[in-house]
Amino acid sequence: MYIKSLTLKNFRNYEEQSLTFDEKTNVFQGNNAQGKTNLLEALYLFSMGKSFRTNQDADLIRFGESYTKASLTFCDRNRKHTLEIIILRDKKKQIKINGLTISRLGELMGHLNVVLFYPEELGLVKEGPHVRRRFMDVALSQLRPGYYHTLGQYHRVVDQRNKLIKRIRMAGSADLSDTMFVWNEQLAALGMELMHYREEFMGRLGVLAAKAHFEASGEKLTLVYKPRFESKEAFLEKLESGFERELEQGYTLHGPHREDFEIFINDKEAKTFGSQGQQRSAVLSLKLAQADLLFEEYGEYPVLLLDDIMSELDQNRRSYLAGRIPDKQVFITCTELDALLHGGKIFNVSSGKAVLQ
Q: What is residue 245's predicted lDDT score, i.e. its pLDDT?
């Protein structure tokens, strides 16, 4: 799988830009704040249908403009594909796959698979549970498009249940208990489905991440994920027994939207006892394992997006990463060329313009 071309109109700081890429290495070089990461953001948009930097689609529209339009062509082992995304302010974005408009974002999942490495993800080990949940959600949505659909349903149930909790708090009455029972049933059913997805995913990911980590550092990496509940009945029982506390807090306290997984290096918790270098090795291993898992599933390696990641790694880890990417398509942003990067295409990026060197 590789991306052939990208065309942008009014995207971030790009007024108009058309690029054709190498099937292997593509480097965006330039000073900070010139638009290098914006190009990776555009490529990522065609994989997940949303940015990795903002939740607001309108943020992607160039200042002073009313819309942005982006199109991309890519090839898998079967054929060439075209993707197009149009975003207008205060309107739902329009996505086309091979000329056909899709009605749900989930229909985009699994078409163009990318794995993103960017500096903020180095917090995958040391930051809070929401960062690791997001990693699971993004990786699983690519691997299992059905997961993305279930996740959306689950979050809608959580939102409705939270609204009902607030109504009961304000009314000070249990008259809405029958309605709560209906939401509890849906929450437990969808929640168990999500946890089953996650358990299978984390088991497979753990094996591949341990292999990558040992190759990179010679150390033992272990991932530990434990579903919050073993059965739907146990989930429902917790929702009932913990309801008074939920009324006090004003929102849903139990379910996969509160989950986490643990990362151990040499049998010690990496978040607490791991050095910065060890934590970065763990993140690198997780991302490479994510890519390997997509290869196992689809028979094609995903496109790799590396946002200034080389400067964040020491020489040994840069060498290991460079050794893993020669036969894969990779897009790399940097301020200075790394000696490990060679071949392919180099684009100089300045003030929202990318020019082939």
A: 93
* Cα atoms found within 13 Å of the Cα of residue 143, Cβ hemisphere only: 23
Measure the CA–CA gap between 14 and 35, rounded to whole angstroms: 8
Q: How far apart are the first and last CA of the chain?
A: 24
Distance from the Cα of residue 19 to its chain's centroid: 24
- CA distances 135 to 124, 210, 271, Å, are 8, 17, 16
Q: What does the pLDDT look like over 323-346, one tens digit per residue?
A: 888 788 999 998 887 766 667 899
Name which of 51, 43, 47 is nearest 17 in CA terms. Answer: 43
Q: How many domains does the chain have?
A: 2
**Is 120 contained in some domain?**
no
Question: For residue 78, what pLDDT is reported?
Answer: 83
Do 215 and 323 sit in the same domain of this protein? no
Residue 121 lies inside a defined structural domain of this protein? no
The CATH number assigned to the domain holding 313 equals 3.40.50.300
Residue 288 near residue 212, CB atoms below 8 Å: yes
Which residues form the domain of 291?
A: 126-299
What average pLDDT does range 80-102 have in this prediction? 94
Radius of gyration of the chain from its Cα atoms, rounded to whole angstroms: 22
Same domain, 43 and 172: no
Task: Report pLDDT digits (tens) over 167-188.
Answer: 888 876 556 667 889 999 999 9
pTM of the model: 0.90
Q: How far apart are CA 325 and CA 304, in angstroms?
A: 8
* DSSP class of 61: B
